[in-house]
Every structure is written in structure tokens, then in C-alpha cells.
Amino acid sequence: MNQDLQRFSDLLPFYVNGTLSEADKAFFESYLLKHPEVQDEVYFTQRLRTAVKAVGSERSEQAGLERLLSAVRLSRKTTKTSLLDRWQQHFRDWGFTPAFVTVTILMMIQSTVLIERWSQDQAPSSLTTYRNLPEMSTQAHLKIIIRANANFSDVVMLLRQAGCNIVNGPSESGEIWLNIDDINRLAEVSVLLKASAEVADVLVIAPATK
Amino acid sequence: MVDLPPDELHAVLNQIALGNDKGMERLYKHYQQALYAFIRHQVGFDEAAEEILLDTFMVINSKPFGFNGESTFFTWLCAIAKNKVKDWLRTTDRHQKKKIKLEEQTESLSDDLDISWAVLDHFEKSELNQVMQGCLDKLPSSQREAAYWTYYNDLRISEVALIAQCPDNTIKTRLLHARHKIRECLERSYVGLDIERSL
Predict the structure, then answer these.
(1) According to the model, what pLDDT value does residue A123 have?
(2) 3-class SS of residue B150
(3) How close, in Å, is residue A65 to chain B by CA atoms?
């Protein structure tokens, strides 16, 4: 196909629908004058346009309107469902019955409570510490009970002065097990500790044998 | 197809959102004919076109503010309709689909036939629309759609290409092939060479 014929062929539908630019329209009409044999194709395309425009042209403005409005009114009625109904439908769409959902929710709440209790249980506390006191590797000579309001650093200073070593404790109830460097001073240390403001009570345990 | 003025369109969509029938009535009356023609060019069956037209407007009823302004309102309506056409094609039974596919196939004519552009002379003016529409229904959907936008809506080549999302030259080729196929189809109809194929 030569170039002009190709161009004519490309422009034809748009000449027929009246959207060509002035330059293209001028070329097209000039080509038409020089090649009258293409007039049949132009007429064919014009007739094709008429046939395309005729699709649906027999429909009135109202055709199908009543049917549409009925469907629209029906859809309004069905969308006015309560929130509860919508939630139920939503769950049913997922395959969950209301009873199943209820049981699932209850189990989730219960699990949350249990997990929280377990977490609290795992948190370090004096009770846990007490329960987890290591076994004494050395036997204690003394057990003291420190007062509730005692300053622990003062207690430590006191024990150093008295020549005591902490073997175990302090426990939750303030008990500390001690041994002393010089066993012969047991009575003296006992009196010293009893006399201090930090110590509520002193108990002599059977002395260790060397 | 000239869209409703933006203010009026907005008012109509508001009415639809508020459940006022007058809004839907106005919208339907303005767009239904052109939209029906678009759908009819897509599916080739009157009854199917009616159903899809109804479904398209029901979509507008449920989402009146779905239009984002990126195209013309009518083009947006056609996009919705096209999706409904795809749904329809999916649910259409196999028998019907085969028939549609066969009708879209290109049939080569016998060399004995003398095809000319003057084939229209063989037909009465009164029957020509119907015969040509029958031939249009047999075109591949891309050619039918190009014909719709060019001849029904009188759009420029660039506008048609934009809607079809393809280059201008593709549209030109589709329109050229459409013309030739319709010409052959008319010639076939005239000489009685429409072959019934058993499905």
C-alpha cells in the first residue's frame, strides 16, 4: 500500500466522524478528488457509523428505569440491618457460628488472664528470692533477725565489726545466717549483735566443728 | 456522549447517596442509551446487555462517590460495565461462550467472491442497520470497542487510544481490519455463505 493510500485509510474513520484536523482534512479531500474510486469505501464507512449509532437507538429514555428503581428500593430495604445482624452475617460468611465465636472469645479472655498471672509469678520478688535461696555451703554459727526498719548497710558494717560472715540470707522475714571467724568469740559476738539497734533477735546455732 | 455538568453530576450523586430516586432517575435517563450501546457492543446479546446495564447502575447506587475524576464520568461508567461484562462472560455457560468465540473468528472467503466496497448496494436500506450490527457482533471485542468509541461517540484517534490504552496506530489497524471484516461478512450474508457450525 503506498503512503498516501495508507494515510487515507488511517484517516477515513476520523473524516467520517468529523474529528480530523484542518490539515488532515485538506489532505483527505484532496486525495478523494484525485481518486474517485475510494468514494465507495468512504460511503461504506459512513454507513457503518450510522449502523453503530443505531445500536440501542430504539430504546426510550425510560427503558429499564422502573426495573432499576425497583431494584434500588429493594437494596435499600435489605441494607437496613442492625449492627448485630451484620456482625452475625460477617461471622457466618467466615464459617463461624455465634456459639463458636462466643467460646473462642471466652477462651481468649481466660488465656489472657492466665498468662498475666503466670507473668506475675515469674517476676522476681522477695518471695521468689526466698524460695530460691541457695543451700548453705558452710554451717552457720548464728542466726540473727534484723529489724524491719533497719538500714542494710548499717547491718553490713555491724557484721564486719563483729567479725561475722553471711552464710545465707537475708530471707523474706529478715533472717541472716552467720558464721564468725573466731568461734571462741561466739558469746561476745552474740551479745554485741543483740545490743545493736538493727538486730531484733539473735539465735545461737550449734557451733561448727573444725 | 456529553457528560452531565459537574455541579449537576455532584448533586445527582448526592441524591443517590441520600436514597432519593430522582437522582438515579436523572442519571439513568442521561446515560442509559450510550451505556447500553457500549455494553451491547461488548456482549452481542440484547438480554445480556440489559442485565449488565442494570448491574452497572446498581454499582453506582451502592457507591455513588466511587468516581475519582481521573477520567470522564461516562468513561468511568464504561469501565464498571466492562468489569460486569467480564463477570458475565465468566458465568455464561460453555455452549454460549463457544458460540461467541466462533462468531469472532475470521473466516476467509472463497476466491470466487468479488468483494467490493459497493457491497451495501445488495441490501435494502431498511435492513442494512440490522445486517451490519450482526456483522459488528462477530468482530473481535477489541475491534468492536474501537468502532464504538470512534463511530458512536465520535472521538479523536488520541482519545480512543487513551481509553483503549494502546498506541494510535493500533487503533487505526483495528478500525481498518474491522471495516474489511464487516465488508466480507456482508458479502457472505448476501451470497448466503453463512455456514452454521455445530457446537
Answers:
(1) 59
(2) helix
(3) 7
| The predicted structure's pLDDT at residue B130 | 87
- Which domain range does residue B158 map to? 97-191
Which residue from A14, A53, A72 is facing B61, i.e. has the nearest CB?
A72
Task: Assign residue A171 the CATH number of its domain.
Answer: 3.30.70.260
**Chain B residues within an 8 Å CB radius of A1:** none
Cβ-defined contact of B58 to A72 (cutoff 8 Å)? yes
Question: How many domains are there within chain B?
Answer: 2
Q: At A144, which amino acid appears?
A: I
Same domain (yes/no): B70, B111: no
A98 to chain B, minimum CA–CA distance in Å?
A: 28
**Band (B2; pLDDT cuts 50, 70, 90):** confident
Query: What's the CA gap between A160 and A5, in Å, rounded?
Result: 116
pLDDT tens readout for residues A145-160: 999 888 888 999 999 9
Q: Is the pLDDT at B139 greater than 70, yes or no?
A: yes
Domain that holds residue A27: 3-54
Under 8 Å between Cβ of A56 and B36? yes
B151 to chain A: which residues are within 8 Å by CB?
A: 13, 16-17, 48-49, 52-53
Name the pLDDT band for B188 (thresholds 50, 70, 90): confident
B196/A108: higher pLDDT: A108
Residue B131 lies in a domain: yes
Pairs of CB atoms within 8 A across A/B: 111
Q: ipTM of this complex > 0.85?
A: no
B141 is written with which cell numbers?
471485542
Asked whether residue A192 is domain-assigned, the answer is yes
Chain A residues whose CB is inside 8 A of the B118 CB are 40
* A182-188 CB contacts, 8 Å cutoff, 24+ apart: A183/A141, A183/A207, A183/A208, A183/A210, A186/A141, A186/A142
Taking Cα atoms as reference points, which of A167, A125, A126, A173 lies closest to residue A146?
A173
Of B155, B156, B160, B154, residue with least CA distance to B142: B160
Please tell me whether residues B57 and B133 are part of one structural domain: no
- One domain, residues B180 and B146: yes
